[in-house]
Structure of Arylsulfatase:
Amino acid sequence: MIRKFALISALMVAHLSAAAAKEKPNVVFIVADDLGYGDLGCYGCEDIRTPSLDRLAAGGVRLTQGYVSAPYCGPSRAGFMTGRYQQRHGYWRNPGNWPVDRTQGLDLEEETMADLLRRGGYRTCAIAKWHLGAAEQFHPINRGFDEFFGFLTGGHQYFPEQYEKSRLRWSRDHSDTETPYLYHYTTPLQINGVELPEQEGYLTDQLTDYAIGFMKRAEEGPFFIYLPFNAPHVPLEAPAETIAKYESIGDEKRRTYAAMVDNLDMNIGRLLDHLEETGQRANTLVVFISDNGGKPQNGGFNGPLRGHKGQVYEGGVRVPFIVSWPAALPAGRVCATPIISLDLLPTFAAASGVEPGGKPLDGVNVLPWLRGTADGRPHEALFWERAQQRGMREGDWKAVRRTENGRWRLYELNSDPGEENDLSTQHPERLEAMKARYAEWWDTLAPSRWEDPKY
């Protein structure tokens, strides 16, 4: 009798999941800022507690070889927002913070994931860090989003009193400029282009409050929330009571960083709880990534990986990457297939049934790989650059050049994920073939739309 009941229950769950998957799922895309590969419990972290993200991973697919297309900030975001290597549309560097600069931002001819999903009937909202251009034409409201709450530049203070101190200091030191808010931690928060006074409370909490409010306003769905938190990016600031939980961590920066990650995890838990309480969790596709690797000098930890934010070694471009959609993806699966953030836009397109309408994509729909039903890999090769650095992965081989005139090194990632053993002299023909392929990719890229990309 018990077996019969269990079978009936399983069939009912399968039926409900299939029915839910036929509807357009809500999409919640969460980005952490400068979070290290080794900074979550589900990725082996022992000194920071992350129960909410561990729960997300247990209920979905955790990628062990998930990548971003750049080892830092704006270029990484320009890649996943368009599904195309950001260099294809001239986005080689972080943009400046000039609200009158009509070049430093995401190319207006590129379709964003918000453009795509809004065409499919989604209500769209961007919250927190934008960093894709400060001029009006680059504003989220003009790039496919119905609502925006956050800041346009690369960072923000976490407490209003700290923000005010930074703003006054910047204004005093730059009283001769007509743009007193250029320093990106002192650009004001805003809603839909209207600047706001600083609000009481911790910024990560405020951003989550707005996200939950949007979910309530858009509960008839489908909705798309793009939530690129600035935590745990500097400035290192966290609630005192959360820092106190980590008094056993001796390094002050790591202690505050841990508290920032703890608070971020707690707020992601609030989002997941709301979806569950309102019956929307099963058919909500939730993705969590970091925009690049962690920065050890600011408290981040990249586990066994070499390098950090700003470098094309694995520690700069391999990131925590979790995908959960209970109605359509298995729970508790660990995926070792190399997948890159460029794949998110076409995956969202496939999940929502909306055809991409922009230029040819570099990303692909990776739902079959997430389910474990596809053979092979979605990409023959992956490419990176940052200033004078070059990086390429082909199969399990990784070629890296650290400086403009430096030699290329070759690593076999399956046996050497820490990129410690240079095999370039043992496999010179393979390295030369990879360098030639990299040169072919380089020749397809557009010139930088601002500044020299080597610097």
